[in-house]
Amino acid sequence: MPEIDVRLVDVTKRFGPDVIAVDRINLEVRDGEFFSLLGPSGCGKTTTLRMIGGFEEPTSGLIELQGQDVTWLPPYRRNVNTVFQNYALFPHLSIYENVAFGLRRRRAPDKEIRRRVTEMLELVELPGYEQRRPSQLSGGQAQRVALARALINRPAVLLLDEPLGALDLKLRKQMQVELKRIQQEVGITFIYVTHDQEEAMTMSDRIAVMSAGHYEQLGTPEELYERPTTRFVAGFLGVSNMLKGRRLGEDGSYAVVEVVGGSRVRVPRDRVDGRAEMEVGVRPEKIRMLASDADVPTQLNRLQGRIAHASYMGVSTQYIVQVADQADLTVYEQNVERTVEGSIHRQGESVTLAWMPEHTFVIGTGAATGATPD
Question: What's the pLDDT tens digit per position in 47-64?
Answer without folding.
Answer: 999 999 999 999 999 999
